[in-house]
Specification:
alpha/beta; eight-stranded mixed sheet; 14 helices; 33% helix
Length: 493
């Protein structure tokens, strides 16, 4: 059998529901919709963590954060941790990455043989971060991300445009080699930043959605609010967000998703124009979602559905059906295992990923409907409010339990309550289920041990941070972000 090409399209912070193929009538995502129409769309895929680095490093290694020990955005994945890219290389591929990886430390490849464009942020902790100019703090969980939203430009959009151009150039060069007689397949990841905040979009994109984006379905927590949820809203100063700020940020987010879709369209158009589309397995997903005002929450950092459930589309002409959906409960680590499986690459010895190819081909194939996501921090990032947490969720079948170490759990029936408005954790009728799922969350996952390990790693990182501040190590694969690339324009009257 001829070895397939792989095109992996990986975005940042794309909440699943904001896409036409997932039923959002306000969204404009014709290219993702076409991809879904030509392939298999998964409804219940979850991220390993609702934070960039731990989610991405978990996907690379096919191991959950507590196993690969990256929980925060300044954690370093060890260089000898095998990834699905190493496995692809072992199978004879030469993995290439255009754009975002978001790995910390000296290893900026983690199995990739080549990178183009690179990351916008430093490879090291302890050194000055990238300067967003007028959009400073608008990319992180601060109130400024809502007040500094609307029309303009973030450097993230500029970088993604360069990533798209680089990916298209790679495809054209590969096609030229193939016409010259090469039969080597490609393995290309296109790493996008969009639609990650700042919630700022080009004027033409913003205008497309102005007045068309609905407000959040539920703009307040369910009653009574969970103590941690109530604290988080208060600490992040989002308990009383102005309706105008909400709609402006939402409109910009929809515009960013549309721009992401347009860039994906450019890559897919090039793939087809170069005669490569029939031989290529295409995968689209993202690292986590965004609350977008639901429950009165924004950004990620929660284990509610808008934050942890992600879009996932698989398209493989002649190998997978077209226009079908799957309800299986899965994880990004399973998506990684699926790509590795499609390439005929060896299994990762400690990987937890399960290939989705079987159920993609047959909706009734064997599968265990269970997965996990975790969110653990220390107190160092200012946005944590000085509060370290150990949270983990399990989704099993129709039910989902969120475990908060030191606080009461939450239990939801997602079939009857998809928006998580009715907490069943205190219901006597659900006590046995609650206790069973709490035990499942804690099976092999020790929150106290994790807190201790995070503190130990922080002491190590303190030394590395001081070293980086004094030595000024060079960044590898760094895209130059300048403050001038960011602007905030008046919103049209």
């Amino acid at each position: 059998m001829k070895r397939p090409n792989l095109l992996f399209l990986f975005s940042d912070q794309h909440t699943q529901r904001v896409a036409g193929c997932y039923g959002d009538r306000a969204a404009s995502t014709p290219n993702l919709d076409a991809l879904a129409a030509q392939g298999v769309l998964f409804d219940n895929v979850y991220c390993p963590s609702p934070l960039c680095v731990p989610s991405r490093m978990a996907m690379l290694t096919e191991r959950h954060p507590y196993e690969q020990e990256c929980w925060t955005n300044d954690d370093y994945l060890r260089s000898d941790a095998p990834t699905w890219l190493h496995a692809a290389g072992a199978a004879g591929y030469r993995p290439v990455l255009a754009g975002r990886l978001h790995a910390m430390g000296p290893d900026q490849l983690h199995g990739y043989a080549e990178r183009t464009v690179g990351d916008h942020s430093p490879n090291w902790g302890g050194v000055p971060r990238h300067d967003l100019g007028v959009l400073e703090r608008a990319n992180d969980p601060w109130r400024e991300s809502l007040t500094r939203s609307g029309v303009g430009q973030s450097a993230y959009q500029v970088k993604d445009a360069e990533t798209t151009a680089s990916a298209c150039e790679f495809l054209r060069a590969h096609a030229a080699r193939r016409r010259a007689g090469s039969d080597e397949p490609f393995c290309l990841t296109v790493g996008y930043l969009l639609p990650h905040p700042p919630y700022v979009a080009w004027r033409e994109d913003y205008a497309r959605f102005e007045g068309r984006v609905p407000p959040p379905r539920h703009d307040a927590p369910s009653s009574p609010p969970h103590p941690w949820e109530l604290w988080w809203r208060g600490d992040r100063n989002i308990a009383d967000v102005d309706a105008a700020d909400t709609l402006r940020a939402l409109t910009a987010y929809y515009a960013l998703v549309h721009r992401l879709d347009a860039m994906i369209g450019e890559v897919m158009k090039t793939l087809a124009a170069e005669g490569l589309d029939e031989d290529t397995f295409v995968v689209y997903t993202t690292d986590h979602g965004d609350q977008l005002g639901e429950r009165g929450l924004w950004w990620k950092h929660t284990l509610f559905e808008d934050s942890v459930r992600v879009p996932a589309i698989l398209r493989w002409p002649g190998m997978l059906p077209s226009g079908e959906r799957r309800a299986q409960v899965a994880n990004l680590i399973d998506v990684a295992a699926t790509m590795r499986d499609a390439l005929g690459a060896p299994a990762l010895p400690t990987g937890r990923g399960r290939s989705l190819l079987g159920v993609a081909r047959d909706a009734h194939g064997a599968w265990i409907d269970e997965t996990f996501s975790e969110h653990c921090t220390d107190i160092v990032p200012a946005w944590t409010g000085g509060r370290a947490i150990q949270h983990r969720m399990v989704r099993r079948g129709r039910h989902k339990l969120i475990y908060y170490h030191g606080d009461a759990p939450q239990l939801y029936d997602l079939r009857d309550d998809p928006h998580e408005r009715r907490d069943l954790a205190t219901s006597p009728a659900h006590a046995a289920l609650r206790d069973d799922l709490v035990a499942r969350v804690l099976d092999g996952w020790n929150p106290e041990a994790i807190a201790t390990r995070i503190r130990e790693r922080r002491r190590d990182k303190d030394v590395l941070d001081a070293w980086a501040r004094n030595v000024h190590p060079a960044d590898a694969y760094r895209w130059t972000l300048t403050p001038e690339l960011n602007r905030l324009d008046p919103v049209p009257a």
